[in-house]
User: Fold Recombination protein RecR from Candidatus Magasanikbacteria bacterium RIFOXYB1_FULL_40_15.
Amino acid sequence: MYPLPIQNLIKTFGKLPSVGQRTAERYVFHLLKSGKKDVGELALALKNLSDTVKSCQICWDFSDKNPCNICSDKKRIRNTVCVVSDSQNIQIIEKMNKYNGLYHVLRGVIKTDNPEKIKDLKINELLRKIKGLEIKEVILAFSPDLNGETTMMFLKNKIKEANPNLKITRLARGLPTGSDLQYADEITLGDALKNRTENN
Amino acid sequence: MYPLPIQNLIKTFGKLPSVGQRTAERYVFHLLKSGKKDVGELALALKNLSDTVKSCQICWDFSDKNPCNICSDKKRIRNTVCVVSDSQNIQIIEKMNKYNGLYHVLRGVIKTDNPEKIKDLKINELLRKIKGLEIKEVILAFSPDLNGETTMMFLKNKIKEANPNLKITRLARGLPTGSDLQYADEITLGDALKNRTENN
Assistant:
């Protein structure tokens, strides 16, 4: 058996997503081998995170400011809300430099195999937001997989109930750039045909 | 761009073995979503590790005692040293309950693609130990892969130089239990034939 402080850290690392016993052991012994400086650096980075990062009370993204930089940016269009599952998705959309509206981070998706977790999602916060007069369009920007589709369907119904006049959109489905027609699945090809665009 | 404390923690997690940018991001946002308690727990476990775990100055394993439990155990046979690459290997051997000698943790192996790292290994500490009169046998218990074989060959020569009368052994090679002859590789099968045992 490992000494208790080693066992404890293995257990704590094991709570991170997809980290099992063996991976957690590797992390702990890597840190032990690299010495106190690296352990201290990680502990300090965690403390700083805990001390300074908070939830933006408007979009529920994590930020060192509340409201966050995007929500407090006067140049942003305030009548469009893009709903994403996680903070990381905001980064992806922002990198494109093609969206100038606001965001709402749901903090996850509805998981068909664990439907109780739905209470942890920022759904009521979204519905409260769209009940106001300011919002005109909600973009549901989830991955088009099973959990993403379930979440979008659920949100669409809830949003319609709460504010029937709102425009609800989702990201276009179709063929990805560089793909080969021959290997496209039926649903993707069907979507691409149905949503065909003019090519003059 | 993420806020600075998030970026910092992503960078720090990224120093763990096999953790890239995406995995580090997942860890950080998982912690943010689970809340301050989990972040604090991990920071505390790291602090405890740093405060209490030290290197045993005899075998170089990590322990909360110096010398460690094994090195200070009077019931252990003190003339046999089993050399392993990492602390985790001690656990594997101890679990069998079939070895009652001492250990020496080399803290890694000689990597053929990064030979400079050899100076971080506890090789001189091993040589100093075996120069005494007490040690009679050194077991080289490394994995029989490229780096393991290189390390064993290197150590064997160094040990012979330092103490020519020492018995140097290595773990037996052969067919693993449950394997199929048909799929055994040539080297393994050759070793199994060469080191065949009597079966009366």
Notes: Chain B has two domains: 4-52, 62-170. Residues 27 and 129 of chain B are 42 Å apart (CA to CA).
